[in-house]
Design goal:
The protein is mainly β. The chain contains two helices and 23 strands. It is 2% helix and 46% strand. β9 (143-148) and β10 (153-158) form a beta hairpin. Keywords: Signal.
Length: 340
């Protein structure tokens, strides 16, 4: 969802949809050349690396040539932190590899490809209402789940990290459609670890759809706790993504936008996994917060993974709203205070 007025770039070229047939029968798959600019320091006024419970590892801003790349709103990684898949809120996939230096610091995106997402009929999603993909999660080795905001639904694809030819199936989700507001629907999506209180269940959280008490609607899609729960909402903040830690706690990425003078902010809350049950109201401490004094933009995607040393890493990606006023960012942190 846009966080400020922006000038839109031209829509993807018609050639993107007519580019022919790629491997596996996918259409419109285009190679993308990514140019990255490193971000060596997260804080603009110091060389500090510690921000709340997180330690900044590195990151970069990036631009693309060869296809329309922007509006990135969800991110998943393979366990080694290299192969990635992202989704945009105009219904496109972006797949490739994260380049890293000898210390594991992310330096750029390689072997990138972009393709339109297919709908239930095998036809590319068309129009903002249908194509507003926001949440992205991986279940098992191969399955990709995507949540949509404007026409709320969750689709399941196959073929990580290149699900370009996959025709999805629709999953049942428990949040009543009447409770999901226009442009504030299903935003965050996460799959819990099998060895956790939720036993591998899928969780979704609305961006800004609230109950009478002002709490966010959320849902557990499957398992013994299947049903609706609520996340306490601070008035200034909206949910933008979520992912589970290896031990089963849920990290919720949130953002605030308060106009030109109020600025932009991002933060992460940690929700105890055992608290997430059908009918519960959950809350948790803020473990990270940043504003425009740091190198942030409209951060909408969060992926949690463990590196070779066993450290828990958080990789975040931003939605530039296809605006020259905003940036595509990939930022990475280590969770220093991980209670596993």
């Amino acid at each position: 969802m846009p966080v400020r007025p922006s000038l839109r770039l031209a829509a993807p070229l018609l050639a993107c949809l007519l580019a022919g047939t790629a491997e596996g029968g996918a259409t419109g798959v285009l190679p993308v050349t990514i140019t990255a600019q490193p971000i060596a320091a997260f804080d603009k006024g110091s060389k500090d690396t510690r921000f709340g419970a997180l330690r900044f590892v590195g990151g970069f801003s990036f631009t693309a040539r060869g296809a329309s790349v922007g509006g990135l709103s969800g991110l998943v990684l393979r366990h080694d932190g290299r192969d990635f898949l992202a989704v945009s809120d105009d219904g496109r996939w972006l797949s490739g590899r994260i380049a890293r230096d000898e210390n594991g610091v992310p330096t750029g995106l390689e072997e990138a490809e972009s393709a339109p997402m297919l709908g239930a009929g095998g036809v590319p999603l068309d129009g903002k209402t249908d194509a507003d993909a926001e949440g992205l999660a991986r279940r098992g080795a191969d399955e990709i789940l995507v949540s949509f905001e404007r026409r709320p639904r969750i689709l399941a694809y196959r073929g990580f990290p290149r699900p370009f030819a996959s025709v999805p199936e629709t999953l049942d989700q428990p949040v009543p459609l009447r409770e999901l507001r226009i442009n504030k629907g299903l935003e965050a999506l996460a799959v819990s670890p099998e060895a956790s209180p939720l036993e591998g269940a899928v969780v979704t959280i609305a961006e800004g759809s609230i109950d009478e008490a002002g709490n966010l609607f959320a849902g557990i899609l499957d398992g013994p706790q299947q049903g609706v729960f609520k996340l306490r909402k601070d008035e200034r903040w909206q949910a933008s993504d979520a992912d589970f830690l290896p031990g089963g706690d849920l990290l919720v990425l949130e953002r605030r936008y308060e106009g030109f003078f109020g600025g932009l902010g991002t933060r992460i809350r940690r929700i105890a996994g055992g608290d997430i049950t059908r009918g519960a109201l959950v809350d948790g401490p803020v473990i990270f917060e940043a504003d425009l004094g740091q190198e942030i933009d409209n951060l909408e995607g969060l992926a949690v993974w463990s590196d070779a040393s066993g450290a828990t890493r958080l990789t975040l990606i931003s939605d530039d709203n296809h605006s020259f006023l905003q940036r595509n960012l990939l930022l990475e942190f280590v969770l220093e205070d991980d209670r596993r």
